[in-house]
């Protein structure tokens, strides 16, 4: 008999918030927090393996950069944030954990303009197993094709990992799951292949790897790691604009992300793929990389 998951506000453990290590239930914000109403919030999604956060400093650097793009400054240095993340992982039991730093404007002003609001920073971690069943990963997951598209870079701060940019991802993932898919692939504002709702996407053809140019979505840290692993294998990686009508010409497809890690794909809407050697090798290389990190 399965049990319902514990709501995140009812869990046990510790959360670092604004320089203090708090009991989980004591980490609270007011309902009139600007980040809740106006999306002035940035975050990271990271994984700790055996108590060590993979590419931790790169994530912290991106968090600070995202805040700068959103026109606010996190009042802690990279080294201070790094120490806080390591502390929370340790206090919450070490091992394999998901790590969520989040920075946001507070409640001093409640309007679009909020220059005087305090900038808060919180860091939480929790146990989270592989996003997809490792035993069946090589069968490949199924992706829908989302109705919403990634926005034009002239219309949104697309290179920030900002909370507001994920509302269309939540809607698209919900719609996909209702239809029996694991996730959805999104197109960009001009109808070209972009990414999934929370992961980057790759395709293979004639021994080469093709992936969309990250010009209107995040150049993921896992994405960069997998590209480096592929090049180390002598595989050519081509970053370019990919049109949906090209999908039937590809052999394999896989997605990458801190949550998804490296996961093969069997279907994208009406298009079929056969998870094969390149997906398998990169999945194994990434598993070895995070184990050795």
Can you put this structure into words, describing what you see?
The chain has 293 residues and is of the alpha+beta class. It has 2 domains: 9-126, 2-Layer Sandwich (D-amino Acid Aminotransferase, Chain A, domain 1); 137-292, D-amino Acid Aminotransferase, Chain A, domain 2 (Alpha-Beta Barrel). Helix content is 25%, strand content 29%. It is built from 6 helices and 16 strands. Strands 8, 9, 10, 11, 12, 13, 14, 15 and 16 form a 9-stranded mixed beta sheet that branches. Strands 1, 2, 3, 4, 5, 6 and 7 form a 7-stranded antiparallel beta sheet that branches. Strand 12, helix 5 and strand 13 (237-240) form a beta-alpha-beta unit. The longest helix has 16 residues, at 277-292. The radius of gyration is 19 Å and the shape is globular. The two termini are 37 Å apart. The model has no long low-confidence stretch (mean pLDDT 96).
Find the CATH topology of the largest domain.
D-amino Acid Aminotransferase, Chain A, domain 2
Strand count, sense and barrel status of the largest sheet are: 9 strands, mixed
Number of strands: 16
β-strand percent reads 25-35%
Order of helix and strand elements from N to C terminus: EEHEEEHHEEEHEEEEHEEEEH
The low-confidence runs, each spanning 5 or more residues with pLDDT under 50, are none
Q: Shape, please?
A: globular
Structural class: alpha+beta
The CATH architecture designation of the largest domain is Alpha-Beta Barrel
